[in-house]
Write a structure and sequence with these properties.
Layout (H helix, E strand, L loop, with lengths): L2 E7 L7 H6 L9 H7 L5 H11 L3 E7 L3 E9 L24 E2 L7 E5 L3 H12 L4 E5 L2 H11 L3 E5 L7 H10 L6 E5 L4 H9 L4 E4 L4 H11 L13 E2 L3
Parallel strand pairs: 5-6, 5-7, 7-8, 8-9
Antiparallel strand pairs: 1-3, 2-3, 4-10
Helix pairs in contact: 5-6
Length: about 240
């Protein structure tokens, strides 16, 4: 039919029919609580719909509460003369390329991760668990400060934007209280001037979000003590989360 069709599907919290009816409106979130938990401005789907309209396409949503959502996109894709389009997956010859792997360092000691997002907490908890090091979680900068001053972890991974006390403020206060352990900033804001700001406020290094496994392991191995046998876990982890 000279159309390109795409589907983006998740198994998340889903939406009611009423929420589906307004989800493509500008500055609209399914629920205020969802906006608080997951962020966003409510503009993304509105922009998607407008861009598709400009290209002669359309988007629709199917969703069920507690089961997930599916967004279906249709775009015109007229076939040039003499071109045969792929019709089935069996016609596609897969291109094999080497998969980047990351060595998992064997570490000991305690890593404190200060982060208010539970998904990020679980991701980093899983990554650290493979190293053999112990991980503790703080949900905001205040909790991170209290834990660090009482227990002196071997390494602190500090999210920059957190409630109660931001990661930058928490790090500055820790340094003013004489805390000398390594602190790594974790943030999506990694322009050169921003990284310079983090380093100037007491951070030792910066890790970019979303977390990339090879870079993550390289950086924590630089600041966290190695296991007594100095061994490394076997490679094989994909380079992207």
């Amino acid at each position: 039919t000279d159309q390109l069709q795409l589907a983006v599907i998740d198994t998340g919290i889903g939406m009611s029919p009423a929420q589906q009816g307004r989800i493509f409106e500008a500055f609209t979130q399914a629920e205020i609580s969802t906006a608080r938990s997951y962020g966003g401005t409510g503009l993304g789907l509105s922009i998607v719909r407008q861009l598709l309209a400009l290209m002669g396409g359309r988007v629709r949503v199917e969703s069920e509460l507690d089961r997930g959502s599916a967004f279906h996109v249709t775009l015109p894709a007229r076939t040039p003369n003499g071109v045969v389009m792929v019709q089935t997956l069996a016609e596609v010859c897969p291109i094999k390329s080497p998969t980047a792997t990351s060595q998992v360092p064997r570490l000991r000691g305690t890593i404190l991760y200060a982060e208010d997002n539970v998904v990020n907490q679980q991701l980093v908890r899983n990554l650290v668990a493979r190293t053999g090091a112990r991980i503790e979680i703080a949900a905001n900068g205040a909790e991170a400060m209290l834990y660090a001053l009482r227990h002196h972890p071997d390494l602190i991974l500090m999210d920059v934007s957190m409630p109660v006390i931001s990661g930058i403020t928490a790090t500055r206060l820790l340094r003013s209280y004489g805390y000398k352990g390594p602190i790594i900033a974790c943030t999506a804001n990694v322009m050169a001037n921003e990284v310079d700001q983090y380093l100037g406020n007491g951070f030792n290094a910066c890790l970019e979000k979303p977390i990339r496994r090879p870079r993550f392991y390289e950086e924590i191995a630089r600041h966290c003590p190695a296991a007594e046998d100095g061994s490394r876990a076997s490679p094989g982890l994909s380079a992207t989360p």
